[in-house]
Design a protein that fits this description.
By secondary structure, this protein is mainly alpha-helical. The chain is 71% helix and 3% strand. The chain is elongated.
Length: 190
């Protein structure tokens, strides 16, 4: 009974994080295109894109992780889904707080591709679900990894550099976790 209550509390908490809209920041200056000055250094378009990309990753990977806990046929995939979901809740809170400090508006829903991936996974069962979950999330993490690395290397903003480093740790962990399922074929690693 305690496990069921704990699971329900985790799901409710994750739902609240994902569904709670990000308010309009006090200073809208950083939402303009191009590079703007902040007290932490210059904030570029790529810096803002990183915050948006990480926020959008959480908006679909939190529900995907919840779904994997229910639908995955392999215990390891269920476990990886739970860890990724929990860590994305933390990373989402970090992205939202960083964006608030920098005056960057964030999206409140996944992008079209991410919504499509969630729909695709919703129609799968058993090992087919497991493979789809792992491959979609591994590909997404591989894509955002390059964005984070580029921003970390080039940003002039100390807040963004620190956020990129924290994000990189999560992404590295998630790629390793997904690969630990044994369901990532060699062709997916390119």
């Amino acid at each position: 009974m305690l496990l069921v209550l704990a699971a329900l509390a985790a799901v409710a908490g994750a739902f609240a994080v994902v569904m709670n809209p990000v308010g309009v920041p006090a200073s809208g200056a950083a939402n303009l295109g191009g590079t703007v000055n902040t007290r932490w250094g210059r904030l570029s378009t790529d810096d803002r894109k990183l915050l948006v990309a990480v926020r959008q990753a959480g908006l679909w990977e939190i529900p995907a992780g919840q779904q994997a806990q229910q639908r995955a046929s392999r215990p390891r995939v269920r476990e990886v889904g739970e860890i990724i979901m929990q860590q994305h809740v933390q990373l989402d809170a970090d992205a939202r707080a960083t964006a608030q400090r920098l005056g960057v508006l964030l999206p409140n829903e996944p992008n079209g591709s991410q919504k499509s991936w969630l729909r695709e996974m919703s129609g799968k069962y058993g090992i087919d679900y497991d493979k789809t979950f792992v491959l979609r999330l591994r590909a997404a993490h591989g894509s955002v990894f390059t964005v984070i690395a580029k921003v970390r290397a080039q940003s002039e903003n100390t807040e963004i550099r620190a956020f990129a480093e924290r994000s990189m740790k999560f992404v590295n962990t998630h790629m390793s976790l997904l690969e630990s399922t044994g369901l990532v074929p060699r062709r997916a690693l390119h």
